[in-house]
Design brief:
By secondary structure, the chain is mostly helical. It contains nine helices and no strands. It has a domain of about 80 residues. Helix 3 runs antiparallel to helix 4.
């Protein structure tokens, strides 16, 4: 700090670009944030179309409170009742709201992560695990505020609405219009605190694990090629770690965004009521379907993302 002009403090997290000139010949290539945004959006759109039914079942089980009593006896029963009542298409109710959000969500996530990691990497272009965690945290918080909270609120209301005797939402835009008309824009930002906590921890855990595994695999060669199948395995492990690490926050977030959210005064009040009336195990409702969905989700997203970036590198030349 003493050597900087006018005594200005320069964080060690931000590395001056002039270091690039002194970097060794084996320096890892940086990913342009623009490529990350485009590749992330494509990966997010494809992934959600494949895995949405597991997200639907997970959300239904999390909304199913013991006090009601429970409507579903488990994953199979939830799928069976949904198909009997609404057909196979019922498992895709709410897909539009999630699809409209998944593309920008993944775009923001990877764009912000690459932007931050480009400054956090050392002189050889290597990102260590701790900085990978911090970059993931930043990406998760940003995606929560810009995309995930309003998207998830609409999705949860859509799925919850289907359990009503007379569903009132006819489609994505009609549902958004009704929510905004009844509750204002704040109605699409229910559970913001829980969502920020969930997404921030989610991406921090995922990118920490992914960065650690990739560094271990590459060893001393930062440009070593990673087979897509290995990328998928690493992604699935990272996804599983995030599920076990933050499912309680996911349950709280879902309750704070459901049609019964008015019962809770705050995120903390929601957590305390779940603990008091339903017990500790309620915080892990939907873990199995979420585990299957997230492992597949993260594996697919990382595979598609890496492959799309490779294609973009051949057609979009950046410094």
């Amino acid at each position: 700090a003493h050597g900087s002009p006018a005594g200005v403090f320069i964080s060690p997290f931000v590395r001056p670009r002039c270091l690039a000139a002194a970097a060794p010949a084996g320096k890892a290539k940086l990913t342009h944030p623009g490529k990350a945004i485009l590749a992330g959006g494509i990966a997010g759109g494809i992934e959600i179309c494949i895995t949405f039914p597991t997200e639907y079942v997970k959300t239904q089980l999390q909304l199913d409170e013991k006090a009601n009593p429970p409507k579903f006896r488990g994953i199979g029963d939830c799928v069976k009742q949904t198909v009997q009542s609404h057909g196979v298409r019922g498992l895709y109710r709410g897909l539009s709201s999630l699809l409209y959000g998944s593309i920008p969500k993944s775009a923001v996530r990877f764009g912000v992560f690459e932007f931050l990691s480009n400054y956090a990497k050392d002189e050889s272009g290597r990102l260590d695990s701790t900085r990978g965690l911090l970059c993931g945290l930043g990406a998760g918080v940003m995606e929560a505020v810009l995309v995930v909270c309003p998207m998830e609120t609409v999705k949860v209301k859509f799925i919850h609405d289907q359990t009503s005797a007379k569903p009132k939402y006819k489609g994505f835009f009609h549902g958004v219009r009704e929510i905004v008309r009844a509750q204002g824009l704040r109605g699409t930002y229910q559970g913001l605190t829980a969502t920020v906590l969930k997404q921030g921890s989610n991406q921090a855990i995922r990118f920490f694990v992914m960065t650690s595994l990739k560094n271990w695999y590459k060893g001393d060669d930062p440009n070593k090629h990673i087979n897509p199948l290995i990328t998928g395995v690493f992604g699935a492990i990272a996804g599983a770690a995030s599920v076990f690490g933050n499912t309680p926050l996911d349950v709280i977030k879902t309750r704070m965004q459901g049609l019964e959210a008015h019962k809770y005064k705050s995120t903390l009040d929601c957590a305390m009521k779940i603990l008091r009336y339903e017990g500790l195990t309620a915080f892990y409702k939907g873990t199995v379907p979420r585990l299957g969905r997230v492992c597949l989700d993260v594996a697919i997203v990382f595979i598609i993302y890496e492959e799309v970036v490779k294609v973009l590198n051949t057609v979009w030349k950046t410094e």
